[in-house]
Structure formats: C-alpha cells, structure tokens
Amino acid sequence: MKHHLTYKGVHEDVLRMITRTGPAYYVVLVIVLFCAIALYFLPWFYQIHTGQGVTGLNSPSYWGLYLVNFIFWVGVAHAGTLISAMLYITETPWRRAIHRSAEAMTLFALLMAVSFILVHMGRVWNFYWVFPYPNQRTLWTSFISPLMFDVFAINTYFISSLIFLYFGMIPDMASLQHRVTGWRKRLYTALSLGWRGTGREWHIWGKAYMLFSVLIIPLVVSVHSVVSWDFALGIIPGLMKTIFAPYFVTGALFSGFAGVVLLVSLIRWIFHTESYITERHYDRIGIMLLVLSLIWSYLTALETITGLHAETSFEMEHLRYKFLTPRFSYPVGFMIFANTILPLALVVRRVRSSVAGQFIISLFIIAGMWLERYLIILTAVPRKYLPYAWHDYYPSWVEISITAGAFFLFVALFMLFMKVFPVISLTEMKEDIGLPTAEGER
Amino acid sequence: MTQTVIGLFPRMDTMLTSARRVRIYDIEEITLLSPVPLEEEAEDLLPEKKKDPVRFYTFFGSLTGLFAGALFAVGVSILYPLPRGGRPIAVIPPTLIISFETLILFGVLATFGGFLLLSGLIPTKKRPWHNRIGEDRFAVLIRVKEEQMTAIEEVLREGGAEEIIRFEDND
Amino acid sequence: MGKLLERLLERFHIYRIPGYYGKYDHQWTIVIDLDQCDGCEACVIACHAENNLPIVGEKECANNRAFNWIRIERYVEGEYPDVRVKFIPVLCQQCGRARCEVGCPTYATYHNQDGLNVQVYNRCIGTFTCASYCPYDVRHFNWFSYQWDTPLDQQLNPDLTVREKGVMEKCTFCIQRIRDGKERAKDEGRGVRDGEILPACVQTCPTGAMTFGDLNDPESRVSRLAKDPRRYRLFEDLNTEPSVIYLKRVMEGGSSKDEAPFNL
C-alpha cells in the first residue's frame, strides 16, 4: 500500500495521539467513567447486597439479560483475534493499521464478558470455587459441566490475548521510550525489556508471531463453541441444537467486525488518522462484513428451518413464541433487517468506501447481533417443557442499567488504553511504508 | 581491548553494503539494528535466518499441555469420585475439550517463554543502542579490536553513515 | 509390564461405569396415583412446614418465584360443561440420569448412594445451570435471604438449615427423615421397614395418592404399585430416568388408554 508517510511522520503521529490530550478528552473520559460507575457498579453492589431477586429472573427463566450480554461481549472479542491472527496468516496487507486497536478491543471485551459471568452468579463472593486448585475443602470442580469448559476456554483466551497484545507491542514501546517522559517513560522502558531491534530479535519475534497466530486461531473457534455449548448441551427446547457452535462463532466474528469498524471510525475521527485508515481499508472491511452477514443469514435460516421440520411440540411452541408473539416478532424483524438486508448495501462500492455509511451499517449490525442473542435466550428459556411452569421474563431496571453501563465501561477502558499504549502498530505501519533505499521509497 | 561502534544510516541499502564491506576485517561481532524486520534483504548477514528454534518450544509446550489437561481432567475426577448425571466418573468429551484448551494455553506460554529466552532480551547490563534506531535509522553495530577501529569507521563513513558513535566495553 | 497395565485398566474400568455405583443401597421412589389426587395442596403446605420454606409474598408469587418444592399443576381439559381438571403433583423427580447434575461446575448437586439427587447448599455459587437444565422446573432459587416474622421463626425445623440468598434448592425426598429412619434402623440392628420413612407430603396426603418406598425391596408397596399397567413417568423420552412414577387417571369407560402423558 502506497503511502506518503515516512517513518518519522508515523512516530510523530503516534506520539501526538498518546501524549497530546486536550481538555475535551478528559471531560469525555470523566463523564464516561462516571456513567460506568453509576450504571454498572452501583446497581451491581446493590444486587450483591440484596440478592438476585432485584432482577426480573423467575422460575423457568433463570437466564436473562446477563447471559445475553455475556455472549455478546465474548462474541465482540473474537474479531480482534480474527484480524490479528487469521489475517496475518493470509498475509492481508490492510490489517496492519487496525490490528492493534482490534486486539485491545478483544482484551477489554473479554474483561466485560468475565464481569458478566460474575454479575449473573448468585453467590459471587465464592466465584473462585470454579477454579480447580488444591484446597482444604477437599473438593474439585466437575469437568463434565459446560461451565467448566467455559472457565478453561475463557481464561486461556484471556491469557493468550494479553500475551499476544503485549508481545506485539514490545518493539513499539522500545521505539517510543525515549520520546516520552515521566511515568510513560518508566512504563515503556520496563515493558520493552531492552529491545534493540537486532537481527536476531526480529527473527525470533517474527517466528513467534506466526506461531502465536497459528495457536490462537483454533482457540478462537473453540472459545465461542464452548460458550454456545452452555446452552446447546442442556435440554432446553429452542437451544438444544447442534448448529449452535458454528452459528455462534459466525455471529461472534460478524458482530466483532462491526465493533472494529465502530472503534476504528471513532479513533480516525478523534485523532485525525485519515492517512492511516484509508477508504481502501473500509472497502476491504466492508467485503468481510458482507461475507459474514451472508454466512450468518444462512445459518440463522438453517436453525429455524431444521427446527420447523422437526415438528416436536416443544420446538413448535418455541418457534411460535419467537415469531408469532408481537413482543418478539418485531425484534426478529429488526434483526433480519439489520443483519441480513442492510449489509447487502455493502455490495455497492460507494457505500463500502464511505466511512459514514459503514459506521451506520455497523451500528445497526451491533444492535441486531445483540438482539440475536437476546432472542436466542429469551425465547427459549421461558418456554421449557411443562406448560404450567411457563412464565415470561421482563428485565428489571438493575439488568438494563448494568447492560448500558457495560458499554460505558468498555469505552472508558479503551479511552484509557489509547492514552497509555500506541493504538496504531508502529512496526507494522513502517513495514507497510516500505524500506527506505537510495532510489526512494520501495 | 575491544570497542563497540555504531554507525547510523538513514537508508537501508547503504547500511547493508557497508555491513558487507566491513566483514573483510577481523571483527568479533557484527549486528544489524533496525526499526523493522529485515529478513529477505539481509539474508547473508543473518546466519540464523534458516533456523526456527521457537517452534520446538511451541511443540513441546503444546504436547505437555495436552497430556497435562487430559491427566488433570481424568485424574482429578478419579481422585474425588462423585457420580453425577448417570455418567461415568472419567468422561471422554470433557477431557478432550479441557486438554485442547490446556494445549493452546501451554503452547502460548511456551512460545512466549521461548521468545524471551531465545531473543536474548531482558538485559543484565546496559547494551549499546541509540534512540533513533527505534525511529527511522538503520544501524550496524560492530565489536572490534581498538586497532581496527579507525579503518572500520572510515568504511562506514564512506558508505553514507550519518553518525558514528563509540561505546566502551565495560566488561 | 503387561500385567501392571492390565491391573491399571481393570482399576480404571470402575471409573467408566455409567453412574459409578453398580447397585444403590436403596432406590427411593414415590408413586403418585393421579386418579386419587384431588388437588387439595395439603402436600404443598406440609412441605413448607417440614423444610423451612419461606413465604415469599404476593409480589414475588406473581413473578413465578413461589417457593413450592412440590407444586400441584392444574391442567383444564375440555369446554364447559364437560370440563375436567387434571392435577399433577410435580416434585423433584430425583432423576437417575439427572440433567441438573451435569450442569453444576462445583459438585453442588450430585447423586448419592440412595439414588437421590442431593443438593449441597454450601457448595452452590448460583450459576443457575442446574435450574435451566431441569426439564421439570422443580428447582427453586433463594432470590433474597428470606426472613420469618415471629412467631413463625419458632416453627422452623431444627433438622434442616435455613438457606441464604444465592443458593439453589429443591425437593430432597425429606432426606432428613430418610437419614433419621436409616439411623434408627441401624441402631436397632435391622433393615428399614417399608412404610417406616415417610416424606412430609406422603405423610400428609389425605387421599393416600402418594406412596413412598424402596424400589430395591421387592416386597414394598411401591414395588407392587410400580408394576401397575397405568404407570408412566414424566418425559421418559428425555432419558432422565426419574424416580417418581405416576399412575394415569382412570377415565370414563374404566380405561386409562387415552389418558395421554405429555408428548415431546
């Protein structure tokens, strides 16, 4: 990809992004943090103090908005790894400008997902009982439970993402350490581990990068499959389906990519990085979104049609509840519009290359994918087997507030990240620019 | 008495030509420093390019993870046999899933550990470097006996070095 | 070397038996005759009294959080004036292949040697997986730490704990009574007699619709009732192997053939 940028220019830009913070940034950060604390932590503490009864959960509907959010955030986390690892192996050039922010999105989305696991637990203060370690309770955890698969999968994914993100940042921090001052200088000097850029270091770095990518890709597929099996391994009629693992993984990649578009567009707007994230990037990302939208639509249709064909009475009740009750049929319509019909506009090149167009489409996709998780869980769990026990579920203010607060918390964490670490990968941008030779840029 | 000299070059090809020319002298160590990886261009100067030692760390780490996970899942269930769900105590599908996750986890940790060990990071003493290498300068680092120093510096300056810095070896 | 491997495999074979126990000490079963159940809900009240169940209040009941370990399900069939009401007492079926036990990550619910699906309150961290996996919806959650106003707190059963918020619970076949009966029998050096141990619901039922006993004992009443041609179990197709056997109603004409249990 041709640039008019130079190595020095890239440095200056990234330094400017990290160190020059205007008052508007601080104001927005404080507001977002305040909203996060007020909407997320305070209702959560109230819930811990009073009990799970403050939610709208009830007898057959034991899983509600919290699990919806959990799946949503784990799904959003997948795109970062897709961009970093999968597109690295396929040697896609346009991943270079966006993969650092995508990886950071993965990390913070995973944090939100883990927090939702904690929020939905009845006795949170005992959460560490799910970790298998020698203890004086002389009991271990039951590995047959799908939640234990979850514990291992999400922890592995979190640790791997953290290591991958840090590992990718080592050369960048080494480059920047002499241009920053104060606490950032101490942080970068400590974290860059004395990186000098010798041939040996780069060689090993490159080899390890490829190996990380190769390891993390099957992990990504397995994590969301495991999350989907929390539901698919039970006997709840709308959820007991074998299509769940590929369905959830595709949905995760789809929603995550839309999340990346939103984040990258915001970074571009705030920091004026138009020369790094160009229209060509949006063009390519648009194609990925379109492909994922088509796959997702196919799998959704598959899930519904096979359920309809089975014609068991409980599956038919689940489908009736989902498609014929006004409470859920309108969200189904919106979801199909946002996830299937609207992304078809990305076929048109002009829509693909326009930042505003993609931003709007991605907003709809994120909303549509959140609704997809909402519909999957909330139309299945209240309608289990015995008809006497059926009961609808309406979320309470605590759940809605925590849902909203999670978005604020995520944005706050990301805003803090942008000021501490370089959100555009210096090394990769320089590789993109090419090597300076006597004949000019190559 | 060995000394270290670093020559900073603004262009990569001039740096490589000078590095190749310097090699005819009797030097102890020559290292290329750059802000980006230089795999294809500097093949002759990087003898270790053909080797890939990190993958052994990954392989053995993953293998350990696989067996550790399987042993863990089956062994722990046998230690505390509590029947649940009408299933046997040692169940196969959860063992497969758990050992897959530990395979990836140990593989990632082993790769990271291998990277730290093999690349020679985490310095114990201060090593010669220059700020602008991280930014946009390519450099050749040469450790050579003091007598040859002026000749080496001449070669570098001819090649187009912008700046030449000497370091004392504090062995 | 080969013999060592053989011995290890032989030892390991134990851990591959489904359900682990070759034979249970007892196989506690309840047989409920739906023809005799008139929906009086005396069993519900007895369960409340015996097991320290809280009264959650009208607002919580409206949100289906009523704390009935055993509930009488009412299904109305037909149009007026040919209305028939069917009462089914649903309690924890103590499934042999329980779905809930599969879901719990902390072994808070597992199968004991009496063939009962026990719930360990201390171990529960409240992940709701067991309740979501249960096809009969018999599990109840302590949404709050419920209080008993005086003088109701003096009515609490000292043989049982009072559960705090965040813990899942369900019918235990009055395991405190089972344990008491077994210990008394052991003290007297005999086996447990049929009809000696009665859970609260079985003891209270005025029509005698419920019978409790040991299916391992071929002489017990439940063993004889279990051979009744009217027998069925709820959702047998789900392969949960419940320990509660229902006897179909005898409809007009004297036959139970058309009295359909739920079909999947």
List the total number of helices of chain B: 5
Shape of chain B: rod-shaped
What's the helix-strand series of chain B? Answer: EHEHHHEHE
Strand order of the largest sheet of chain C: 8-1-10-9
The largest inter-chain interface, given as chain pair and residues per side, is:
A-B, 62 and 68 residues
Overall pLDDT score of chain B: 82
Count of discrete domains of chain B = 2
**Widest sheet of chain B: strand order?**
2-3-1-4
Mean pLDDT of chain C: 89
Strand content of chain C: 15-25%
According to CATH, the fold-level topology of the largest domain in chain B is Alpha-Beta Plaits
Low-confidence stretches of chain B: none
Gyration radius from CA atoms of chain B, angstroms: 25 Å
Helix content of chain B: 40-55%
Give the amount of beta strand of chain B, in percent.
15-25%
Provide the structure class of chain C.
Answer: alpha+beta
Largest sheet of chain B: 4 strands, antiparallel
Structural class of chain B: alpha+beta
Q: What is the first-to-last residue Cα distance of chain B?
A: 10 Å
Cα-to-Cα separation, first versus last residue of chain C:
52 Å
CATH 2nd-level architecture of the largest domain in chain B: 2-Layer Sandwich
